[in-house]
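Write out structure tokens for Cytochrome bc1 complex Rieske iron-sulfur subunit.
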Amino acid sequence: MTDNNTNHDSGAGAEGPDRVIGTPSPAGESLAGATATAHERRHEGPYPAVETHPRPEEMQRKGEKLAALWFLVAFLAGIGFFVSYFSFPPNAEGEPAIADPQTAQYANMLMGGTIALALFAIGAGMTVWARRVMPHYEVSSPYDELPSSPEEKGSFSDFFMQGAHESGFTKRPLMRRTLLLAMVPLGLAPIVLLRDTGPLPGDKLKHTMWEDGMRMVVEGTDRLIRASDLDEVGGMVTALPESHDPEHGLSLNDQAKTVVLLIKMDPADFSDEMTQQQLDWTHDGIVAYSKICTHVGCPAALYEQTSHRILCPCHQSTFDAANGAKVVFGPAHRALPQLPVRVDDEGYLVAAGDFSSAVGPTFWDAEKGD
């Protein structure tokens, strides 16, 4: 029995003492390793073949078409942004049509929607590109010294070009060209938006439609205001200029610029710090201040008659109505503009001119003269 198994044992010994029947021989393993090494040497990508898993060609072609479609959508959305932007040119009076709040709402929706779609489509196209065209890498690298060796620095260019080739940027012209096409409108958009920086407003921000002799009406009505309507100390009325266009009335822009608070005070309560000119702008204790806060333009509509404080509810800026509406608290640092008032021959309250200073939030030269 022993003699009969001598050849088999010898063969097993040649194969190795622990070899199991049906498993590959060490020679086969060596051959497989040699094949993998040869394949690794043939691989031209930036990473070794064992770490690189290319996508199937069919998947790459479908991914290229899908990514190109997304880039085309981004291009059309970018063109839509320009169309939306230039659809609101200045009107006949030289004022931007987009200054109308309702028009501005539509313009913002169109421009915001198209630019958002363009950015989303580019992101979607890049995602498809990375997941369906570029190969998948499983990269592991040891912690080496941070400075690169001269050999690594010299091979960077080859590494970069090999990575660009594997990414499909040079191999897939349809995807590359549609990506570049989609980026053109986005690249031009900031340049076009420079249109909004001019022309300079001049002194338009410092003047409103108020002028000497213009009567006042209660906000939201056409009822003219007489001085006798504010006969009680502490009374307050929100007023606007009388409109001479009964069909349309005042525009929202004019209302925002001209709205005033009429406050009835005891003349003895006015501060000694008020100038004589400011006192002359009042009538029998009636003083008019802009209702628009000089911080960010909120309506300063709250009035406390005991302390003579005007409060803006947005950020708690507080103004002293008895002292030229000077700031006594809060982030605002400029007093509410005062409107000169008087009465006409029929006893109606009228403006005696325009505001003492620019209305609304402070800008860089708001306190400078014309």
